[in-house]
Amino acid sequence: MIVVTGATGNVGRPLMQALIDAGEEVTGISRHPAEVPSGARHMRADLAEPSSLTAALNKAKALFLLLSGDLHASGATPIDIIDRAAASGVRRVVLLSSQGVATRPLAPTRVALRAVEDALRESGMDWALVRPGGFASNALAWAESVRTQGVVAAPFGDVGVPVVDPADIAEVAAACLLDDQHSGRAYALTGPEIITPRQQAVTIADALGAPVRFHELTRDEAKAGMTRFVPAELADDTLDILASPNPAELQISPDVYRVLGRAPGPFADWLDRHLAAFR
Length: 279
Fold this sequence. Notes:
By secondary structure, the chain is α/β, with parallel strands linked by helices. It contains 13 helices and nine strands. The protein has a seven-stranded parallel β-sheet, sandwiched between helices. Helix 3 links the parallel strand 4 and strand 5.
């Protein structure tokens, strides 16, 4: 049995499907009731309460661990999840970490995530780290405004990063869960090209065959929107990258190719699969 946290998300759902396709038994975990791919089972648990994972981890051989935004907040104890997995006999954990752990090691939320990585390394279990940069799926935050107003609103419109398709993250995570050769490795995951928010808006307009206007938000406006869903520290750390990515954050990583033997997909490919959300 392989347990997948974040089962309803942009990474968790395709990851479960990849594991099912590989013939694995899969349990998807989420805080609320949810539908999971055919062939998987679903269990409710709250990562903020590691004891709630006990039943799901029983007889599990591997765990994909995705920490939600609230587990980056002060006082959260995600390391307890690592301890719970080890105590339950889990043999391998793949952690969805962040590129920022390596590129901005002193940022507050990255320090906290590094502590989780370190706990995993010291746990006695096999481990692998998946460290993506920005997600192509973050564009879904614009879907409603595109549908209703024909507008993409974002900060730092002409500053780009190589956003990565969550489907590629999921496929790399599946490989790490299934193949011993990835044990003890950390993979930085990016897309194949740097793309700015303004260029993403153009790509959306081209795909829709309709005009889409770009509206540049101030940093304060962007933070106000982000903090509806994530802690302020995480919003600030993310906005620091979006405002002024450093050379490491602009680099196109070869790790998707190293793991999967193919190039990562561009933003346009992700958009093709999710265009209905913007119509």
